[in-house]
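User: Please look over both lines:
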Amino acid sequence: VQVLVESGGGLVRAGGSLRVSCAASGILFRMYAVSWYRQAPGKQRELVASITSSGRTNYADSVKGRFTISRDNAKNTMTLQMNNLRPEDTAVYYCNANSVSASRDYWGQGTQVTVST
């Protein structure tokens, strides 16, 4: 059973917006720090944004001011709102849920985001 399932990727022109979401099941979601990572072809997976169980957020410098991460613990979901997208944002986006106390780390299957010029 897939614990994390992403949705919402797609194709958009530069300057446009997309929202990707991640739905969790089977875990105590509110206790997990959740993050978005991305991996472009030929590149290493990189952290895009994260939000702790208490709601503290962190962003990669390349997306600050353009992307917003949020979570809804009542619905067991997290969202990455991406505005002013650039071609270099093109990648497969993965959601991650991590609990140090529970020694658990989960990944979604990934969703493709493509930004055209």
Notes: The longest strand covers residues 91-99.
